Amino acid sequence: MAEHIASFDPKIEVPAALQKVFDRVILARSKVASWFERGHSTDYVNNHRHSYFITVLEKAAKLLKPLIPETPVVSENIKLQNRFAGLTVEETDPLDELITEVKEKQLPKVDPIPIEQDEESLEHDFFFAIATFLEEIYDVRAWIVREWDEYRQTGEGLTRAAVLSNTAVDLVRSAENQFDQMLVRPKK
Asked: Taking a C-beta distance cutoff of 8 angstroms, is the pair 143, 169 a contact?
């Protein structure tokens, strides 16, 4: 798909956020692949699968990188102001009635492609998702521990540490709920 996007004429501008997504996914996959290799050092087939998928992601990121616009550097001397502060806000019609050219330029129909996943692959994805989620929870925990250590050492920042702890607990609960709803479980 990345090859098709990269070779498309006229050239398509790829959002800069996509590079960040690629970087995060490649980093996460690399961490889990090394974790998996430590626990399953004799399972060469699956170790090779993990490495191959990381290579595919890296290749796709490399192909799409030239299509990502470089972000302009903002000087610290430029005064930033809200350009829209002087405008008045008026009620508008529903969006679909306003933008008729969007309706006229419909994207071509693309037939859905069924994705078949074998049980073994589904199981690996399941454990990858759990390992990644637990690692992120551990990172949040380590961050909160650092906040409380700073309070313990300096005696300052009690309110900050308490608010951050409560917020972290709420975020983890929310993330756990979302994770549970989107996790695809293997049949085993």
From this structure: no
DSSP track, 52-65: HHHHHHHHHHHHHG
Which amino acid is residue 100, in one-letter code?
A: T
Reply yes or no on whether the pLDDT at 141 is more than 90.
yes
Q: How far apart are CA 51 and CA 47, in angstroms?
A: 6
Q: Which of 72, 68, 66, 58 is nearest to 23 (CA)?
A: 58
What's the chain's length in residues?
188
Predicted confidence (pLDDT) per residue in 108-121, tens digit: 777 888 877 788 88
Q: What is the pLDDT at residue 176?
A: 92
The token duo for 126 is 């399941």
Tokens of 1: 């798909």
Cα separation, 131 vs 168, whole angstroms: 19
Given a contact cutoff of 8 angstroms between Cβ atoms, the answer to whether 36 and 46 are in contact is yes
Q: Which residues contact 48 (CB under 8 A, 6 or more apart)?
A: none
Q: DSSP letter at 81?
A: -
3-state secondary structure 144-186: HHHHHHHHHHHCCCHHHHHHHHHHHHHHHHHHHHHHHHHCCCC
Cα radius of gyration (the chain): 23
DSSP one-letter string for 109-145: P---------HHHHHHHHHHHHHHHHHHHHHHHHHHH
